[in-house]
């Protein structure tokens, strides 16, 4: 009998990711933090664009999760600033945008921005976990 290997067994052997979550909604922050809790990654959370830029300038992140509907500066604009700030310390994080609405133009907006991929927020965030595994773990290890 062949024993099935779990993706989580594989992930336990690879380098943990440094992730920055930029989201102004505390419930969303909590749900994402809980859903990523068992992966063993380091998750920093901030809720403003200015705080996000400061953190990216002083820390190296592998992945940035960004709310595309932030109140002052939208996530598309902020993603450009975060990419520029990350280049100062020679880190080149992937950016996944988080959106609550599936708009027909969303994929077009993403393709013209510095956002690498996006998800529509779901209850279980399975899509987010899959994108993190595909974009970060499998590419780096």
Short description:
This protein is of the alpha/beta class and 141 residues long. The protein is built from six helices and five strands.
Count of alpha/pi helices: 6
User: DSSP strand (E) fraction?
Assistant: 15-25%
Low-confidence stretches: none
Name the strands of the widest sheet in spatial order.
2-1-3-4-5
Total number of domains: 1
Q: Portion of residues in helices?
A: 40-55%
Report the count of strand segments.
Answer: 5
C-alpha termini separation: 29 Å
Identify the CATH class. Alpha Beta
Radius of gyration: 15 Å
Keywords:
141 residues; alpha/beta; Rossmann fold; five-stranded parallel β-sheet
How would you explain this protein's 3D organization?
With 141 residues, the protein is α/β, with parallel strands linked by helices. It has one domain: 3-Layer(aba) Sandwich (Rossmann fold), CATH 3.40.50.2300. It contains 6 helices and 5 strands, in the order H-E-H-E-H-E-H-E-H-E-H. A 5-stranded parallel sheet has the order 2-1-3-4-5, with helices on both faces. Strand 3, helix 4 and strand 4 form a beta-alpha-beta unit. It is globular, with a radius of gyration of 15 Å. The two termini are 29 Å apart. The mean pLDDT is 81.
């Amino acid at each position: 009998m062949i024993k099935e290997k779990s993706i989580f067994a594989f992930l336990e052997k690879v380098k943990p990711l440094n992730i920055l979550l930029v989201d102004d909604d505390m419930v969303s922050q909590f749900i994402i933090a809980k859903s990523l809790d068992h992966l063993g990654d380091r998750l920093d959370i901030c809720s403003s664009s200015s705080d996000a830029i400061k953190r990216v300038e002083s820390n190296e992140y592998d992945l940035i999760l960004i709310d595309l509907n932030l109140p002052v500066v939208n996530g598309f604009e902020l993603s450009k600033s975060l990419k520029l700030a990350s280049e100062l310390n020679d880190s080149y994080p992937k950016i996944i945008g988080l959106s609550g609405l599936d708009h027909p133009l969303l994929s077009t907006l993403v393709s013209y921005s510095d956002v690498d991929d996006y998800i529509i927020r779901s209850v279980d965030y399975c899509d987010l976990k899959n994108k993190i595994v595909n974009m970060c773990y499998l590419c780096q290890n």
